[in-house]
Write a structure and sequence with these properties.
rod-shaped, 6% helix, 244 residues, mainly beta, five-stranded mixed sheet
Length: 244
């Protein structure tokens, strides 16, 4: 049914109010609004079904959309609008790969740092324990300064020094050890002044004793009395006959 009152046309309705008022469905191959074609399909237009939104343009888009990304602390890059890339700054002690960030604890190097709150230092070479300690120094906690610092072993009550296998150690000062002249062979023989003892006790040099026993028998003769037999071959009992 078409209704025309001379000013308004109604299809399926006699209600005025619009130049064309359709009381039902409209099927058209093209739709124009104020002379501009609506190019969206019905499916695309249906996305807006029930949506309450505000139209954005260059004047207010910043209130409704991300228009730029700015790199923060430790980051580089950033741009916009459009695709953007944010990079993580490597920094000291870090290894940045395409898809991972790792702590660099393998790179070697030396520094002059000898103390810190943690005993750790972070440099361009990597992260590690303090690199300023010298030979025979270790990290120790200093309760006075509340820091970890390089300290000598002897200063901590430790012992330094080196030795040779089988030699008994002797003190060199109050905090270091060195070889003595006593050699304890793996066979059980002990040498003084020799590293090849052939007897239970083998002295390569002079021996001074208060008492001398041979096969469990005390040699009671004095050195002066024994010297009478210098060059003679006698038994212990025969030597003891010289006592007095």
């Amino acid at each position: 049914m078409v209704y025309d009152n001379g000013s308004f046309v109604g299809i399926g309705t006699t209600q005025a109010g619009y130049l064309l008022n359709i009381g039902g469905s409209l099927n058209t191959s093209a739709l124009f609004i104020a002379g501009s074609a609506v190019t969206s399909s019905a499916t695309e237009l249906n996305i807006l079904d029930g949506v309450t939104a505000t139209t954005s343009d260059s004047n207010n888009v910043g209130s409704y959309a991300v228009t730029a990304i700015t790199a923060g602390s430790g980051l580089t890059g950033g741009t916009g609008p459009g695709a953007t890339t944010i990079n993580i700054g490597a920094g000291n002690g870090l290894i940045v790969s395409a898809d991972s960030i790792a702590i660099d604890s393998a790179t070697t190097g030396l520094t002059a740092v000898t103390s810190s709150n943690s005993g750790i230092e972070v440099t361009a070479d990597g992260i590690r324990l303090l690199g300023g300690c010298s030979l025979n120094q270790v990290l120790a906690w200093d309760n006075t300064s509340q820091t970890w610092k390089c300290s000598s072993v002897s200063g901590l009550g430790g012992v330094t020094g080196t030795g040779t296998d089988n030699y008994l150690a002797r003190w060199d000062g109050t905090s270091a050890l060195q070889n003595s002249s006593v050699f304890a062979a793996d066979s059980g023989n002990v040498g003084i002044g020799t590293s090849g003892p052939g007897y239970n006790l083998d002295v390569a040099g002079s021996a001074n004793v208060s008492n001398l026993f041979i096969a469990g028998n005390l040699v009671s003769s004095s050195a002066t009395e024994l010297n009478i037999l210098d060059g003679a071959l006698v038994s212990t009992a025969e030597i003891n006959l010289l006592d007095g």
